[in-house]
Every structure is written in structure tokens, then in C-alpha cells.
Amino acid sequence: MAFDYDKYIRPGKLPHIWCPGCGHGIVMKGLIRAMDTLGLKKENTAIVSGIGCASRLPGYIDCCTLHTAHGRAAAFATGVKLAKPEMNVILCGGDGDGTAIGGNHFIHACRRNIDMTYIIMNNYIYGMTGGQFSPATPTGHKASTTPYGNPDPCFDIAKLAIGAGATFVARGTAFHANQIDKLIVEAIQHKGFSVVEILDDCPTTYGRRNKYKSVIEMMNRLKEVAVPVKAAEKMTAEQLQGKILTGVLYKEEKPEYTAEYAKVIERAQAK
Amino acid sequence: MSKKVAFLQGNEAAAHGALYAGCNFFGGYPITPSTEVAEVMSVELPKIGGKFVQMEDEIGAMAAILGASLAGSKVLTSTSGPGLSLKQELIGYGCIAEIPCVVYNVMRGGPSTGMPTGPSQSDVMAAKWGTHGDHPAICLVPASVQETYEEVIRAFNLSEKYRTPVMVMPDEIVAHMRERIVFPEQGEVEVVSRKSPSVSPEQYKPYDTSFGDVPPLASFGSGYKFHVTGLNKMQDGFPTTKAEIVQAEEERQVRKVEANADDIVTFEEYQLDDADVVVIAYGSTSRSARYAVNAAREQGLKAGMFRIKTFWPFPDKQIKALAGKVKGFIVPEMNLGMCANEVERCAQGKAPIHGIFRVDGEPINPDQILDKMKEVK
Amino acid sequence: MSRYELRFSGAGGQGLITAGIIMAKAASIYEGKQAVQSQSYGPEARGGASKSEVIISDGPIDYPKVTQCDALLAMTQEAANKYSHDLKEGGVLLIDSDLVVKIPEGNFKTVSFPIINTAKNDVGREIVANIVALGAMVALTGQVSRENAEKAVLSSVPEAFLELNKKAFSMGYEKALAASA
């Protein structure tokens, strides 16, 4: 039997704003399947986002949804989670929102290891504003504000998350749709701050400027560059040239923030 | 039983006022001269099971309290000028998404880093116009330690009642001076909580105006599912660009405060009955003014003071009425004429306005005001 | 009007703000008067200039700052130079005789004794010099009783240091009386 997405979609809120060929819808479906697998209660789940195409996702899902200001999802979400640790808190947004204007909140949410899951849809571009380069745009690539090629080096978002202290970091792609929900399930189950980076495509503002002839070509590229971490172990450095690792990249158990704060309360009340 | 008394700083009193009002979540970032509020909250909140978080920056602190408020907490942040500038982004979010919260801002010199330990009153316009767009503004300007305690309680009440951010803005002198404070008993001062929904989760809309200009607010995690956005929204909380809806919602958001000015605006009239020279003052400057009025009266001058306790909404009506009766207004303030401009607007040319403006980090002393009174005479 | 104005001035880290707070607390909590304490300070936690002002009155206090000082404590030469000029006629200036060597002139009474040295050698800890100074200011100003001031001291310091502070306070009180006699 086909999976019934409608039980999680808000009635009357579709069609979504995303362009044909955009991978955000694939990620949303992955999230919905993950929620279903875990049996998350909709009224006990908050989905928090910033600004941008990817940040419109919460509006379509029938939960407690908070579409905040540009870059601020992690900070708003920290308030929600700390106030009500019993809630499931999921964040989503794009690469520009999360790692440029929201970069500070992002790394500090990682550092606190607060039990939330952040799904970053990385399509290498600011799509909603018309295709300006983001901290994830590869060097040399074209955007509306890098007409001569991007001079900036780019972030490896997963490495950034690991370096900042996130205790679960995974990467998938919009092409590998069946893997997305599995990664999100594992991320949500992890006690601590988990980051799932999904390499995504923006045919409208990125593909067009960077000589991708079609969405299919963009999807094929995701298929070709992705190498599961397990497979990569058997590959040489030469073979890994230009490839991107996918799967669970990092996992460790560390004290979680709301649990630690509960201990602060205990200590304060014991005095 | 005699009441509990203490000898406290304005900032410490603010924290205790917040706790009395039921504050159970504080998000902050260290900044002089308001840090004592955060310090007291970090000690006291966990004792009552509340939450204290020091965020990575001022914006993050503002975001955290808004998130926590949506999850049902009564929330506070504290800051000072440079932090207020940063928080303005999300104060606007609180206004449009109609999220109760209290922003306690100690006024120090500016702009930018300015004079971090010097007193100032130059954030009063930022309280109204600091965040972009049309929005409601409530700003309270206490003049003593006791009043700081009481006004923080009132700020929580107003914020919960009108579902909007409320600012409390003592100047650095009030924030850091110490006075005796008498704590009210539990239940002695009214504590207001936001209106919660009376309809089922299926019927709930977060901006349902059939309940009036201030719709009930459900909490995340209480069985109600709803959407909150910083975009112009419809009654169900979802974004819209429909002209008539945006217009009506924007007007309602401002009206819910402006139309209730009589409920919100507070002031003190001191020696006004026969006064022909009236000082309009607020915060610590009003203490200099009171000293000057007393000294002037001893010298036979008919001086009085109109003390602003609520800066926004501005006491338009009261100052308009006074303007017809006096020879002149004196407006002393630690900025270059922010309140004086408002007084001028209200006076409509009926009374001259004499400003005493200081931005050198020193308080306005009573002699300066007394000298000006003689000029008006 | 019963308004009485005190200023505690010196360098950051000398504990003068604390001394001012305890004086004001003694007046407003224990003596039944009204009091306001305020301060100004630079960015330094140690060193730099520090000033704590206390207004004591029988009635409500409006202006919280010093207008004309009744009593001044100066714990550095710089503070003595800077603040002695607005001392009232007949006011009192207390200085540390080791630190303020150039004694300001004016129509006020100057009392001096080695405050920091008293703390270091007679009480045993330099850190309580501010309480020695406070004891002296209480004796010289007569705004609060010795008993009430002592209560305020004891309610403001850590329990482990009650005796030390009590001793410091008494030493200051006695030495000031002797020095001004």
C-alpha cells in the first residue's frame, strides 16, 4: 500500500512554493516518513525554520510549526526545547540561512548538544532571493552575485557541525530519496544535537547558471558524487577525488543540554 | 507580619519583579550595565524549576525567549543600547507574531558602544521606532528601585494582556542605584496571564479576531497545533499577501495597544495645580526635577512636574491638556531632545518648550533645572 | 532639610562601593532613615577611579547624587584632589595618611590615619581596609549609630569573615575618634 503522506500534510496548504525539479519536496517526504516510522505525535512535535525556500517546509506539515526570521531557527528552537524538553524539536532550512546569517546560532546549538535535529537542505545557493552565492557555493561557480566565478572558499557543512560539537552528523542527497528518512530517523533517535545535511538541487537559480542542462543532469551529478562512508573505506584517495561522503559521518554520546540543565535545577533546589 | 524588605539595586529589583510576575524563562547575553539581571535570574530561576540560558548573542537571546514564550513560558531578556539594536530584528518578530515577552533595557550612552558605564536616556525612540515597520510599542520608564520592581511586574502583565513585547527602560542611574525595597506579599499585586483558547485544537486559530483585538494564544506542546510566521499572516497564522487582510491585521496589531492607551499610560502629577512652569521628566532625571521643583517652590516659583512613567504610548492627551494652562515646559533629558520633540508635538504650539539636554554621561543636576525655571519666568 | 551627602572615593578594587552600600543599608534598613547609594566606575575591575555616593535623609530622597558633599572619604591622592573642592563648609574629609600626602585645603575638617595599614597590621588583613574606612566614616558623620552600622556590616559579609570585619569596623571607628579628637 502506498504511504499516506496526507495524514501529515496540512489540508489546503498545497501546492507548495517550490519549483519543478527542486529537491525540497523529496526531503519533506523523507521527513514525513521518518516521523511516521518513529510515531512522533504531531501536537508534540515542533518544526522550526528560518527564511528561504527550504524554510517554507514547516508550513506544510501539521505540527507546531514556527517559521522564524532569517538564520534564527536554531535560537528560537533552543527556547522551545529548553522550555518544553518533552517536545520533539526539528529544524529545517537552507545552506545560506543556516551557515551564513544563522552560522553563529548553528555552531552554538551544536556546541550545546541540545536534543534537536537540524535538516539542512544544501542547494549551494540563495534560491528565494534569485540565486546569490552562499557559504556553500563551490569556489569558481556562478551565482547572480558572482558573475565572474565565486572567489570564496566554501564550508563543508557536515565538518563544520562536527567541529562545533554536534554529536550526530549525517549526509544524504535528494537523489537518494530512500536513504533520507533512514538518516532522519537515526538523527531524531540520537540524544543530542543532530545534523542531517541533504545535498539538494536548485535548477532555477543554480543549475541554470552553472551549465546543467536539466534537473536530471543535476540529479545524476548527486548520484555520481555520493559515496557511502562504508564504500569509501575501501577506496583510494585518488578514487575519492571529487566524491562526497554520505551516510552517518559522525556519532558520539555526550551529555545532552536539557538533561544537564535538569541537573542544574536539582543542584539549585538542593541548596 | 511585617513585609520583607531589602536594600537592592534597580537591576536586582527588576529580576525579583519578574519572578513575582511569574517569569520562568530568561534568555540573555552579558552586557554592561544590565548584567545583574541575568546574574540574579541564573541563581533564582532553577530554584523554581525555571530555565536560564545565556545565548551566543543578543539576537539569539531574543529568539530563545520568543520560542520559550510560544512554548508557554513567561519570558524576560535584559540588555543595553548595543544589544537593543541587535534585538530589534526579533522585537519586530514578537510584534507581528504577537508573542508576549519583556525586554528590560538599561539606557547607557550611545550610539554604538558609546559610554558603557555612563547613564543616558537615548533609547526611548528606539523603543518605538527601532524595529522596522508599523508596530505597537509599550515602554515603561521607572525612576526608583521600588518602581523598577513594580514596573517589571506591570510589563509582564501588559505583555500577557496585549500579547506583545513590552520594554522596561531604566536609565543607568536607576538600574545601578540602591534603595530600600519593600516586597509585596504573594497575591497582593495582580499578576496577569495570557488568554488561552476556549475552543478545541481543531477549531483553534492563533489570530482569531472573533475573540477581540487580542486573540487567545495556545502553547506549543499543549495539544494545539498551529503555525507562526514573521510574514504578514491571516487569522489561521498562515502567510498572506491579500491587501485587505494585511491592512486589517496591521491596523489591529497597532490598535490593540493604541486604543487602550488609557489602560496602559501612567504618569505622576507633582505640584501641578497652580504650576505655570512644568518640568516634564522621566527616569532618574525626574528625581532631579523633583528636587528642583521643591527648591523653586521654596523660592516662591510656581513650579511643578509631570512625570512620565509610561513613555509609550506617550501621554499625548495629558500633555495636550497641560499645554493650554502653563507658561512653559522644561524637558530635561539625557539625550538631545527625544522627549522634547514628543512634547512639542503634543503642545501644538500652545506652550514653549525649553530643553536641557545632556549626553556627556553625567546626570542632569537640579541646579540646571532650577536655572531654566527662572528663565521661563 | 535633613539631606546628608557622603562620597567614598579612591581606586577600583579598594571596596569603596561595598563600603557605600553598607553605609546606605545601615541607614535605610537598620536606622529607619532613607538612603540611596549610587556609583560610578570605569571599565577596570581593579585600579582606575571608583566612586560611591550615599545620600541619607529623614524623608524621601529625590536627586540620588551628591550636590554638595558633607563627608568625603579619599583613599587616593587623585580622589582627594578631585573631590575635596565640592566639600561643604564644615564638612569632613577622611584620608589615608599614607596615601594622601598632599592634604587638600579648605573650610572643612580633615581627619587622617593610616587606613590600609590599620587593616594590614592591626586587623590582620589588608582586604578589610574598606570596612576600617567605613567604621571611621560612621564615627565621623554620626548619621547612623555604631550598633546599626555594625549590624549592616555583619549582614553584608560572608559568614566566615564576621569576626574579621567586626574587628576592622571597630578599629576604624576608634581610630577615627582618636584622630579627630
Protein described:
- The complex is a heterotrimer of chains A (271), B (377) and C (181).
- Chain A is α/β, with parallel strands linked by helices.
- Helices cover 38% and strands 18% of the residues of chain A.
- Chain A has eleven helices and ten strands.
- In chain A, a hairpin with a 5-residue loop joins strand 5 and strand 6.
- In chain A, helix 1 (24-38) packs across helix 6, helix 3 crosses helix 4 and helix 4 packs across helix 5.
- The longest helix of chain A is centred in the first third of the chain and has 15 residues, at 24-38.
- Chain A is globular.
- Chain A starts with 23 loop residues before the first helix and ends with a helix.
- Chain B has two domains: 5-182, Thiamin diphosphate (ThDP)-binding fold, Pyr/PP domains (Rossmann fold), CATH 3.40.50; 266-376, Rossmann fold, CATH 3.40.50.
- Chain B has helices at 10-20, 35-44, 58-70, 81-97, 126-129, 145-162, 172-176, 243-258, 261-264, 284-298, 316-323, 338-347, 366-376; strands spanning 5-9, 25-28, 51-54, 75-80, 101-106, 139-140, 165-168, 178-182, 227-229, 267-270, 277-281, 303-308, 310-312, 328-333, 353-357.
- In chain B, helix 6 (145-162) links the parallel strand 6 (139-140) and strand 7 (165-168).
- In chain C, 40% of the residues lie in helices and 25% in strands.
- In chain C, strand 2 (34-41) and strand 3 (49-57) form a beta hairpin.
- The longest helix of chain C is centred in the C-terminal third of the chain and has 19 residues, at 162-180.
In short:
Chain A is α/β, with parallel strands linked by helices. Chain A contains 11 helices and 10 strands.
Provide key terms for this protein.
heterotrimer; A: 271 residues; alpha/beta; Rossmann fold; 8-stranded mixed β-sheet; two-stranded antiparallel ribbon; 10 strands; globular; C: 181 residues; Pyruvate-ferredoxin Oxidoreductase, domain 3; 6-stranded mixed β-sheet; 6 helices; 6 strands; oxidoreductase (chain C)
Q: Kindly report the CATH topology of chain C.
A: Pyruvate-ferredoxin Oxidoreductase, domain 3
User: CATH superfamily of chain A, called what?
Assistant: Thiamin diphosphate (ThDP)-binding fold, Pyr/PP domains
Number of strands of chain C: 6
CATH top-level class of chain C: Alpha Beta
Note the main sheet of chain A: 8 strands, mixed
Strand content of chain C: 25-35%
Rounded Rg of chain A: 18 Å
The CATH architecture name of chain C reads 3-Layer(aba) Sandwich
Class computed from helices, strands and strand pairing of chain C:
alpha/beta
What would CATH call the homologous superfamily of chain C? Pyruvate-ferredoxin oxidoreductase, PFOR, domain III
According to DSSP, the number of beta strands of chain A is 10
Percentage of residues in helical conformation of chain A: 25-40%
Share of helical residues of chain C: 25-40%
Distance between the termini of chain C: 28 Å
Largest interface: A-B, 41 and 43 residues
Overall 3D geometry of chain A?
Answer: globular
Domain Pyruvate:ferredoxin oxidoreductase core (chain B): 275-369
Domain Pyruvate flavodoxin/ferredoxin oxidoreductase pyrimidine binding (chain B): 16-249
Protein name (chain B): 2-oxoacid:acceptor oxidoreductase subunit alpha
Keywords (chain B): Oxidoreductase
